[in-house]
Amino acid sequence: MTTEHFAEEAAPGPPVAVAPPAAGPKRPAAPSAADKSQLARLPTLTGLRAPVAVAVFLFHSALMFPALRLFADDSLEHRFYRAVEQVGGLTMPFWFILSGFILVYSYRGTQSAGAWWRRRYVKIVPPYIVGWILARVLVEGVDGATTPLQDVLSFFMLQSWSPDVPTNFAVNNVGWSLSTEAFFYLAFPALFPLLRRIPAHRLKYWIGGVLAAICVVPLLTYALIPVGTAVVPNEPSDSANYFWFAYIFPPARLLDFVLGMLVARAVLLGRWRNIGMVWAGVLLAVSYVVALNLPLIWGLRVACVIPAALLIAAGALADREGRYSVFRNRALVWLGDVSFAFYLVHYTVLEYTRKLLGHRLFATPTGIALMVGEFLVSLLLAWALYALVERPVTRRFSRPRRAHA
Fold first, then answer.
1. Alpha helices in 271-326, H assignment, sequence order
2. What is the C-alpha separation between 246 and 93, in angstroms, rounded?
3. DSSP code, position 3
4. 3-state secondary structure of 261
5. How many helices (H) and strands (E) does the chain have?
6. Least C-beta-crowded within 10 Å: which of 224, 338, 373, 391?
7. Which band of pLDDT confidence, cut at 50, 70 and 90, is reported for residue 229?
8. pLDDT at 107 over 90
9. Taking the alpha carbons of 352, 356, 362, 365 in that order, is the dihedral positive or negative?
10. Which three-class secondary structure state does DSSP give residue 48?
11. What is the pTM of this model?
12. pLDDT number for residue 233
């Protein structure tokens, strides 16, 4: 669950120059020099990452696995899980769309593919490896729950390509989304020139086509993918094979990423009809409730895609046009900055806390207090990982030494 929660901060300077559309909605006014830093960073989108990261934490805290569960009250545990069970259907489209959006919005077009890849992988790989080591030592090191093959695949960010859900979630459970994101990064230098050739007035048709393709993914899943023997917990009608193909498989998720790229192009060219952050947020909340009442794959894959794209575009336009945004709050922006590191460590904290506590389950007040403690510990580790690894390594190694000189 990938920034952009995984994208580095946009480099200073305006986005790639593009010709204005011949007709259509009025293009936002060009930013002043004083606004360029804000436009490059898009603080509203950074701030939006904070509540999304919290939602992921709550979802993982609610999973009814012995390695995570805290509450002794079965009824409470089931209600808690039921309330957040479709968080993945909200957060992962948001992360992947946001990733494509930010990369296009901040792309200057002056870098070689090799230099571009260097900057992205220098940002995500070192924190990922630290998170992987923490999970391997603290959680997997004692139990030996993973196989050597799973260790290798997860270390090299290849686990999402395996049609085996235990392998997808091996070592650091959340690492699968980084594996999928790495594929997006690999594809971006080839995709961007193609998308840039799309005439401005045809972007809406391409966006509609990608949305239709996303809707087709569940249909192809049920039609072509064998059911297999394993099933997703609590959803006996949906197999783990379905879950892998529709939710994890990188080429299937590439559609979300491409949608984000197209939406960014539409925003930059003034071809996006903005409904505002309030209405986009309301629509996202409604779509989440709808997702709770859909079959698992449809809820995970389709329900929240359009509202997520609308909210991301509205947030970017709020910054671009200098309008008020609650997510530009300094605390939320800081939480957004550390959200990638938080994502990498929080599941390990949840598992390791459960390991330290043994097999005891707890009354509701005690369980809530423990969960708050897990969140704070995760946040502290995330700050350390961001401040000591992610930020300094990115600054030091994103460019060759001769470029720094």
1. 277-292, 296-301, 305-320
2. 12
3. -
4. helix
5. 20, 0
6. 224
7. low
8. no
9. negative
10. helix
11. 0.87
12. 52
